[in-house]
Design goal:
- With about 475 residues, the chain is of the alpha+beta class.
- Among the domains are: about 100 residues, Beta-Lactamase (2-Layer Sandwich); about 150 residues, 2-Layer Sandwich (Heat Shock Protein 90).
- The strands form three sheets. A five-stranded mixed sheet has the order 5-7-8-10-9. A three-stranded antiparallel sheet has the order 1-3-2, with helices on both faces.
- Helix 6 runs parallel beside helix 8 and helix 9 runs parallel beside helix 12.
Amino acid sequence: MDSGGPRPGLPAGDHVNPLATPEEGLPNRPGRLFWKFLFAFWLSLVLAGLGVGEAVWLYHRPAPGSPTGISTSSRTALGVSTVAAILRYGGTETMREILEDRKRRGGLHVFVVDDNDLDLVGRPVSAAALREANRAAESYPEGPSAQHVRALDGRSYLVFVPLSKSGLGGLRWRSGPLPPIELLAIGLVASVVVSMMLAWYLSKPIRNLRWAFAAAALGRLETRVAPLMGARRDEIADLGREFDRMAQRLQALIQSQRQLLHDVSHEIRSPMARLQAAIGLARQDPAHFQATLDRIEQEVTRLDQLVGELLTLSRLESGSDSDRREQVDLMELIADVCEDASFEAEASGRTLSLSAAGEAHSRAHPELLYRAFENVVRNAVKYSPPGSHIAVEASHEAGNKLSLRVLDRGPGVSEEDLARIFEPFFRGRDDPATGGFGLGLAIARSAVEAHDGAVQAANRDGGGLVVEISLPLTPD
């Protein structure tokens, strides 16, 4: 039973369960990276806000002694005194025009009320505001917020600025700036929310990647991250796709290794069993000792060939021969292969022809490419019936490439097995008389792909197989 502690091979820290989904496999709380992102973004936003606010305040700060530098109470008293002076010396009509103009501009704060408690421009005034204004005017006849004024026409008016919101009646006034403490609170809340969103947006895919790496470390190579990235199109999503590509490649390599080990053990088991049988016969019947030795030598030779081909395949897949390349004429290499194969074909009642012209130079490993060409050509000779013809065609392709086509008249391969004939130990057209281990075409494919080429096979019209190799050429 799992004790819940850290798994072997994983670093100490938060427990990761790679056998579960990302939501279940990681601790259900923000990680260290989330808090680092959060505090970094939040601190940046706060400092930026303070800096901008300070700059704006310094820019709009009034000069000492200027009218805009007086306090709110002083501006209220100045407004009431100004309206009172206009009423006394300019008359009611002049005051009404000024108030109407200020009302249209939305900056009207001073009320002018007659004896009937009606505002000069028809604004609604609450009873509470009138009581407060009358009390202030009676207590301070020349007060800063309310005054009784006799106009030029002899009528008495109450001029005042409401001391509370109740005095505004149903009017909608232009509000002043919020207090600094409220602005600071709003800025802090907004910065925290934005920082949390950014931190979560950046840390969540990294948590998914952490879960995926932990799962892959424990052998779950079928793990994929791209579906968890959603619609992201950034570097983190690219990292997830690269992880998926890596996991897919590792999964294919491990499956191939397991299959190879299975096939190698199967191939070795048969000659080993025959060796044991031959030794047993030699002990039981010394008269057939020489024949038994010949059989043992044959099986040992077969094992040696198998091991040699496995070493060649392993060397190709590891890329250990990439530093031994030299400039090679591929046409000359193909001609040498066909010359040797033609001798073998004629000895078995088959014919082979080569169609090639010119030169085709490439920086390559000549021994490996010779082995690749030889395996394909000899494979065609081996599976072609006596009296048949094998055609080898070499030509230049567009894009500075060499095309080599080997056409035989053998039994062909089923369509579903065409791609598998290049896999190790696969015999798509097995014949007990031909022997072999099924490694020739696998070695050919690895050698060609090591030189950035490609190889493919197709069934030929009228019977047989066509194997085509394409290799890039490099100038001298």
